[in-house]
Amino acid sequence: MPPQALVGRVESLESRVTVLEQLPGKLDALALQISQMREEIRAEFSAVHTEIRAGDEETRRSLRDEIRAGDEETRRVLRDEIRAGDEETRRVLRDEIRAGDEETRRILRDEIRAGDEETRRVLRGEIRAGDEESRHQARALHEDVISRIALMQEGHQHERP
């Protein structure tokens, strides 16, 4: 093998290693974004909680019924879309990484960013829906317990002479 061809191959390998060395930094940045997203979600949950308290009981009952009706279908559709998107993303990424050229790396970066945003959006929606449903169910259980306690107290008062 001529020395120039070997030098070219070594330079190509060094270039690829340099790109791979940048991956930990990108993963750290992604972890930071996820952490920030969690904080945003917590803040949004708090805001939603405050808004729900401000509403009247009829609005709560109506929302509870609507959420129950559409919740399972929404979850199923979101899960299917996430799974389909994840499988397709993995396949595309594997093929493009194997190709190894600079254009492929640029396209991958763009697709990952777009996929991250979509995943965050979908997960926020699913988490909000699940959280709201949990709050509605807890509220209904709480109201049921309060009414039962009141009935029990009335029964004890009638038993006393």
Q: Would you mind describing this structure in some detail?
A:
- This protein is mostly helical and 161 residues long.
- It has one domain (3-132).
- Helices cover 94% and strands 0% of the residues.
- The chain contains 4 helices and no strands.
- The mean pLDDT is 82.
Q: What's a quick, concise take on this entry?
A:
The protein has 161 residues and is mainly alpha-helical. The protein has helices at 3-21, 23-54, 57-99, 102-159.
Number of domains: 1
Beta percentage is under 5%
| DSSP helical segment count | 4
Distance between termini?
109 Å
Largest sheet: none
Number of strands: 0
The rounded Rg comes to 27 Å
Low-pLDDT parts are: none
Task: Please state the average pLDDT score.
Answer: 82
Shape: rod-shaped
- Written as H for each helix and E for each strand, in order along the chain, the element string is HHHH
Indicate the structural class. Answer: mainly alpha
Percent helix among the residues? over 70%
